[in-house]
Amino acid sequence: MALETGRVLWTRYAPHVLMTLAQLCYTLMYFITEAAFNRGLNPYVYITYRHLLVAVLLWPLAYYHEKKLRPKMTFMLFLEIFVLSLLGVSLTLNMYFSSLKYTSPTFVSSLVNAIASMTFVVAIILRMEIVDVKSLRGLAKIAGTVVSFAGATTMTLYKGATISCPWKSPIHIHGGGGGGGSIRHESWVIGSILALASCICWSVWYIMQASSLKRYPAQLSLTAWMCTVGGIQSAVFTVFMQHKPEDWLIGFGVKFWSVVYAGLACNGFTVFIQLWCTEKKGPVFVTMFNPLTTIMVAILAYFFFGENLYVGSIIGGFVVIVGMYMLLWGKDKDQEHKTSKEKELELDCEKQAKVSDVYVVHGDFETTKLTN
């Protein structure tokens, strides 16, 4: 009886538990990465090694599992993958993790929540999203987008007063945005612009990825291609930016393990969880857990790592999350409206089919009477 109850509870709450675990993996990544950066790991080298590691792990799986699904590679398809890799891996992530050196994990994780609104705006510009301004759901999407952008703007332009931890933190990460140190305003603005630019690139990448999957439906192979091409792009960029050979030598300390952790936990384990939960519960359910990372990062940063919190980041982050949930609510209601319309159409088709059958039967009956 107890075993059966446990099985039922697990079936019901497994997606919730796994999505929380995925957000925890992302949360730890911010601090492990910041620690590695503060110990000399170059962000460009980090991006290069991380994605080349994932590519090596993914290609054998993609090769054997998607033999029949993988389409033939053409020049135009490769060009599309090249742009996808630039927007989703090399350019975007290099800007994103470079911004971590100038700001803080709390700021960066908060700004990510604005990606949903940015993607929505890009979709409208490309006419891939239709907004019914006369409906409540349409107004919610518009209002949510405006609120999210207001929060992102607040975080970028307004740093605000510093809120320091009143007691000695048990774990110290020296340098960067943590350790109780103060970040110069100029550095904060640079980091904010880099983080904002990376979020815009991510938004365009999400739109492009949706259309690319129609032409290249092998998801695992497409991911492996993007990691490979993006890793090579990042390597070329790093060679031009960093001329010291010792930057490529990361040893087996925190630099090495930050790359391994990000590759296995964030590019492997969490992606699998998100795909599984999307299949079970839908994309809106998965997206709703994103702000949990912001909350976890803020708690760990303040209470355990002695990071400074800033009033601008707290206010802006809260506003971004509110706007994101307004947008998601509108999107969810859109999906419900679409589903109900499809059901009504199916019922109308069934009714018309039944009426047609009645007329056919009646016609056959009349024909039989006349014949007799």
What features would you describe in this structure?
The protein has 372 residues and is mainly alpha-helical. Helix content is 78%, strand content 1%. It is built from 12 helices and 2 strands, in the order ααααααβαααααβα. It has helices at residues 2-38, 43-65, 75-102, 105-111, 115-125, 136-157, 185-215, 219-241, 254-281, 283-287, 290-303, 311-371; strands spanning 162-163, 309-310. The protein has a two-stranded antiparallel sheet. Mean pLDDT is 77; it is low at 175-183.
Question: Are there runs of 5+ residues with pLDDT below 50, and where?
Answer: 175-183
> What amount of the residues lies in strands?
under 5%
Query: What topology, given as strand order, has the largest sheet?
Result: 1-2
Distance between the termini: 68 Å
Nearest-angstrom radius of gyration?
25 Å
Count the E strands.
Answer: 2
Structural class assignment: mainly alpha
Determine the number of helices (DSSP H or I, runs of at least 4 residues): 12
Largest sheet: 2 strands, antiparallel
Shape, please? Answer: globular
Helix content: over 70%
Average per-residue pLDDT, rounded, comes to 77
Order of helices and strands: HHHHHHEHHHHHEH
Please specify the SSE layout and strand pairing.
Layout: H1 2-38, H2 43-65, H3 75-102, H4 105-111, H5 115-125, H6 136-157, E1 162-163, H7 185-215, H8 219-241, H9 254-281, H10 283-287, H11 290-303, E2 309-310, H12 311-371
Antiparallel strand pairs: 1-2
Helix pairs in contact: 1-9, 1-11, 2-3, 2-8, 2-9, 3-7, 3-8, 4-11, 4-12, 5-6, 5-7, 6-7, 6-12
